[in-house]
Design brief:
The chain is mainly α. Helix content is 76%, strand content 0%. The longest helix has 24 residues. It is globular, with a radius of gyration of 14 Å.
């Protein structure tokens, strides 16, 4: 797994844990730093900060373009994978659009249900198509 792939995975884990425990993400990071020797690189923190900062906007796009699925109805794994993927796709110019989508699909394939990769591919693919108008 690439360094960025590991950073995505760590960011996902922290964001997912924060959502599951209903705790602020910063508190989860502080707990992990205090209880483990794990270090979190710059890109992990960039993803976390980006998702948190843009979460309302990301969630609005996900809600608007996911056909028949509210955020609350989505599996929490998918919701967090989509947030990370959408942030990379829409707000991180260092990651090519196709890579952002492919990495999110790969994470869903590894961590979620059999139906999740195609759902995530479809939704992020739609955001990719609309990106020029979404960010105009």
């Amino acid at each position: 797994m690439s360094a960025r792939g590991k950073a995505r995975r760590r960011a996902f884990e922290i964001l997912f844990e924060a959502e599951q425990r209903s705790l602020p993400t910063g508190e989860i990071l502080a707990l992990r730093r205090r209880n483990t020797e794990a270090t979190y690189g710059e890109y992990t923190e960039q993803i976390i900060d980006g998702v948190i900062t843009r979460q309302a906007e990301i969630d609005e796009y996900l809600t608007t373009y996911s056909q028949g699925w509210s955020l609350d109805r989505m599996p929490s794994v998918d919701r967090v994978v989509l947030r990370v993927g959408a942030w990379e796709l829409l707000f991180n110019d260092d990651v090519p659009d196709n890579v952002a989508v492919a990495e999110a699909v790969a994470m869903a394939r590894e961590l979620s249900t059999d139906d999740s990769p195609s759902f995530i591919n479809g939704l992020l693919g739609r955001l990719q198509q609309l990106k020029p108008t979404l960010l105009a």
